Amino acid sequence: MDFEFSEDINKARENARNFALSAITPELARKYDLEEKFPEEVWKKAMASRMVDFSNPWSMLVTIEELCRVDPGIGIAATVSLFGSEVLMLFASDQLKEKYLKPVQEGRAIMGLAVTEPGGGSDVAGLKTEAKLEGGKYIINGSKMFITNGQIADFFVMLLRTSRPDSKRHHGLSVLVVDGNLKGFSRNKLTGKLGVRATNTAELILNNVEVPSSNLVGEEGKGFYYIMTFFNISRAYVAAQSIGIAQGAMDHVLAYLKEMKDSGRESEITEDIQFTLSDIATRIEASRLLTYKAASYLFNFQPKPEITSMAKAYASETAVFACEKAMEITGESGLYGDLERFLRDSKIMEIWEGTSEIEKLVIARTFLKGGQM
User: Fold this and answer.
1) What residues act catalytically?
2) Which residues make up the CATH 2.40.110.10 domain(s) of the chain?
3) Within 13 A of 245's CA, how many CA atoms are on the CB side?
4) Could you read off the pLDDT of 158-178 as tens digits, one per residue?
5) Contact 308, 236 (CB under 8 A)
6) Is the pTM of this model over 0.85?
7) What was the pLDDT predicted at 353?
8) CA distances (Å), origin 141, targets 146, 211, 257
9) CB count, 10 Å around CB of 321?
10) What is the distance between the alpha carbons of residues 240 and 61, in angstroms, rounded to a whole number?
């Protein structure tokens, strides 16, 4: 078993680290957090650098880590223009890939994934927004909530109900590509979020929106399976975001402790502080190894959803743990510094792409069905 990355992956990590340190200054991170504004110039630089490439998943994984290590909000915003691209990569026709995916990969467009609805987040099978096929077009009515890139995306990969479910609630769902400039399509930006404020989030309202039937992704009625496949992939990337946040929190702690040593206060670095530092470091390393194990299955087309869920749940809880402990150690300096933003940003890791509770249900049900480690 080899625990070392190839030279190419290590180079991708180094490039991402250097980019983040130069492009994402503390002043810029605070600015976009306060203004709740998408950092378009950083996104354009990231796309121009060619480091955002989801067709190279290992490089993308370590790139996400390093960007979020410097600032979670801008780090996520720099890569999120391709959010949902795997659905098109895996299931869309060549025509849809050429029309929609190519400009996103080239940094000329932004896409969004629209699944969550006002009535429920984790209950994907219970969504109610309808798309009825009439004369070669789907007529869409309903709404989506908490949609990343909601106000700025050029188009959305959207999960919709195209027929009534049978005995299984997740049947009758399909995925359509929906342009954001269509008649009857409106968006309301959501503000005042707890964290990751540099990302754009909005409510989508669709009132008799007409979409050509050629924008159907894959087969009608298979949408639930497509989205679940995507979530299994994206959860590994959320775990990487979480590791980056936790590592960034630890960086702040180490910088604070170095200042204490340099100012002759080394005796104040108590055993309790050292124990806490050890706990943070150990949980980060455990999260990283678990995430890389999940990714090794995913990227070799042999996904193990229970391992992916373990990685996502544990890494996201580690991000919150690391930020909370970092705040305790740094005290007032952390409260009024960047760590306060890191703590707010960390909480969403336990929520999006499947809450920690959902991940634990996936894990438990696997073993209840006879799964083995």
Assistant:
1) 353
2) 88-221
3) 35
4) 999 998 877 677 789 999 999
5) yes
6) yes
7) 87
8) 17, 11, 56
9) 19
10) 6
Token pair in block for residue 296: 């090794």
Which amino acid makes up residue 244?
G
CATH code of 88-221, in short, is: 2.40.110.10
Query: Which residues neighbour 321 within 8 Å (Cβ) at sequence distance 6 or greater?
Result: 246, 279, 280, 283
As assigned by CATH, the class of the 225-368 domain is mainly alpha
Structural contact between residues 125 and 170, judged by C-beta atoms closer than 8 angstroms: yes
Which of these, 45, 39, 55, lies nearest to 15 by C-alpha position? 45
First-residue to last-residue Cα distance in the chain: 17
Please tell me the total number of residues recorded for the chain in this structure. Answer: 373
Contacts of 341 (CB under 8 A, 6+ apart): 29, 30, 33, 71, 72, 73, 195
Say what the pLDDT of residue 371 is. Answer: 65
Report residues of the chain scoring pLDDT below 50: none
Strands 155-161 and 111-114, sheet pairing: parallel
Q: For the chain, where do the domains classified as CATH 1.20.140.10 start and end?
A: 225-368
